């Protein structure tokens, strides 16, 4: 019996193998035909120019400092306007002593700044030396122009000739001061207007010259005898603190003027004129600010501020920077 079962099982296994071998063959997976489209030609990458280096502007203050609310402040405002509107990069160096002028100017020039601006008369001699050492760079100076036989040593370019890479910025300050003098002459009740300056230099005394001319014209028109105390255009004598930073001197000089009977004063020297506004208030008088609009810079003095003698140096500085950028910079020009 067992042999019969084994035989039957073996037969069944053989039949199963035969049937499996006779099954359908596996269907091959079709393959995609080769892509016969022509290859697309790609253009080589366009070489882009590297971005242009920034146009750099350096500004060197005089000893009055960047925050003198007058001379230096308004020039720096012009530079800041160029930053906003022209996209220049700008830095300033504050000069604490006159002995630093040449080093500060050289600092910008040695770094290749496109234009360096010097803040005023006292930097004239040092700028002449630095500009001569860097003839391929542009420079400008406010309230000053070359040639200058007095401020530039003999033998240095700028003493007897202009400097080709320096553009001066000179203002007709006496005209604005004339109007302030005429106004003050019409406002005074004592018949005396006061003046003092930070130093006896042309850019300071020109305020006195203009004010005196305005006062004298008022006298001619109205038959009055208003006088200017603190400056005399005929003799060239006047009152000066010989300092642009000592506020105590500015206050004391204003007190001296009011003691002499003035009721309106002008302090020409940046911040040294600010303490005089308090003196004017205490004495029932008025003050005149210079260089910029004092109404916006001296909010606490608005009640005693008669007017401002403005030079718009911010516009001038901006124009010089723009000229240097656009290739219209006029070396030897004013």
Rounded mean pLDDT score: 89
Domains counted in the coordinates: how many? Answer: 2
Strand content: 15-25%
How much helical structure, as a percent, in the residues?
25-40%
Strand order in the sheet with the most strands: 2-1-3-4-5
CATH topology of the largest domain: Rossmann fold
Counting H and I runs of at least 4 residues, what is the number of helices?
Answer: 10
Query: Major sheet, described briefly?
Result: 5 strands, parallel
User: Could you tell me how far the N terminus lies from the C terminus, measured between alpha carbons in angstroms?
Assistant: 134 Å
Instruction: Based on Cα principal axes, name the global outline.
Output: elongated
Structure, explained:
40% of the residues lie in helices and 16% in strands. The protein contains 10 helices and 12 strands. The strands form 3 sheets. A 5-stranded parallel β-sheet has the order 2-1-3-4-5, sandwiched between helices. Strands 7-6-10-11-12 form a 5-stranded parallel β-sheet, with helices on both faces. The longest helix is centred in the middle third of the chain and has 21 residues, at 202-222. The chain is elongated. The relative contact order is 0.13. Residues 1-25 have low confidence and may be disordered.
